[in-house]
Amino acid sequence: MGFWQRFTMVFKSKANKMLDKAEDPRETLDYSYEKQLELLQKVRRGVADVATSRKRVELQMQGLQQQADKLDGQARAALQGGREDLAREALTRKSGLTSQLNDLQAQLSQLQEQEEKMVDASQRLQAKIDSFRTKKETIKAQYSAAEAQTKINEAFAGVSEELSDVGLAIQRAEEKTQTMTARAGAIDELLASGALEDPTGTTKDNLTRELEAMASQSDVDSQLAAMKAEIGGPAAKPAVEAPPAAKPATPLAPGAKDAGSSGASSTGGA
Question: Where do the domains of the chain lie?
């Protein structure tokens, strides 16, 4: 195989592939349908032309027949008037018209036969075009549905690929989140245990936290007791009852002696 033969084959194969990719079956079907309609119009125009010719022949035959009838009447009148020569002349002309009528009748028969064939062909072509139109629309609908389904599938394929990438990104983000959460928990445990020192000085040991909790609870109890006293409710009993306070001593008048001390003095004197 020569160079040009190979080049021609490659060119034809690529051109065929490009044409196949660019071809839309729906457009091809519509174009074919339009061509069939054009052919049907030509057939109908042909039928109309034949019918016009037939009608023209019929009118011509009617005119000749009227002339022949007129000549026949003239021949009869001439014969009745004793003019046989005129009657013969009229009949001779009528004979010529009769010959023309016979020729026209033959043409008329041919035109009628041709017209019938063309009308039958037009009707059969119309039926085929109607059937083709129905089939065309069905094929176009099926092709459109298949094209839409193909686009949907291609879209799903693209979305699946994107979702696959997104899934990997989500998985990496979850792994990083878990790692950071575990790291934060580990640091909290180390700070709580005292293994690590908080540079901000906010780390507290367990004893400090318990003391702060007790102080907070005592403050809450005090506030609750004060609130009940304000609204007239029973006051909350203190957690530990205080011992009764000692009664204060009555002050002595000036110059008076304490009974106890005087007793003691008298006792001592006795």
Answer: 12-165
